[in-house]
């Protein structure tokens, strides 16, 4: 029987399974209330970031860009 020390000193496993070991998906979590809330918050956050980025670009085009163009014409 392997002791905790033997398991700790083993070389890491190779392959795809070892790479994805920390990224396991818990399907029970995503179907729970907390998981559904997390998914909703992520989607809402993506929508908000998109709106803020669009608004910042619109403000930049209307206020900053014409000033630079008018300065060049004079």
UniProtKB/TrEMBL annotation:
UniProt keywords, alphabetically: Membrane, Transmembrane, Transmembrane helix
Transmembrane segments: 36-54
The protein's name: CKLF like MARVEL transmembrane domain containing 5
Organism of derivation: Piliocolobus tephrosceles (Ugandan red Colobus)
């Amino acid at each position: 029987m392997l002791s905790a020390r033997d398991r700790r000193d083993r070389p890491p496993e190779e392959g795809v399974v070892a790479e994805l070991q920390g990224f396991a998906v818990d399907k029970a979590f995503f179907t729970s209330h907390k998981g559904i809330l997390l998914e909703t918050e992520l989607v809402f956050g993506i929508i908000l970031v998109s709106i803020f980025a669009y608004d910042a670009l619109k403000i930049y085009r209307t206020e900053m860009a014409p000033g630079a163009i008018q300065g060049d014409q004079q």
